[in-house]
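Sequence, structure tokens reproduced for reference:
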Amino acid sequence: MTRRLFWVGVGVVVTVVVIQRGRKVVAQYAPEAVVERAERAAQDAGRRAETFLGAFRGEFTEARRRREAELTAALLAEGQPDPEDVRASGLSPRDVRAGTHPRHAARAPRDPQAEIDADEAELGYSF
């Protein structure tokens, strides 16, 4: 057992020494022009990748926005307002259907169960 551990340790030390010496030899004999050219190539590749990813992200965002608009238009019933317009107006869907605004409506006490029953009656189904 100790012999195996000894030889594993020797193997690790030899590997570390070879790697360190190899790096020194490469640094010593590598021409500066090759190193600089490799650095420039890596930087150019990085810039091209950044440009590609930026263009891809822009095209993807635009395509996603167009597809979302298509799906929203396909799912809306005829005459139904766009959900984004309803959200922006601050009205609830019930106010939009009724054509009223909560600030102009009489302040009657709200009964949550009555609202649920009214929605179920309007929709024609319940869960």
The chain has a mean pLDDT of 80. The chain is about 75% helix and 0% strand.
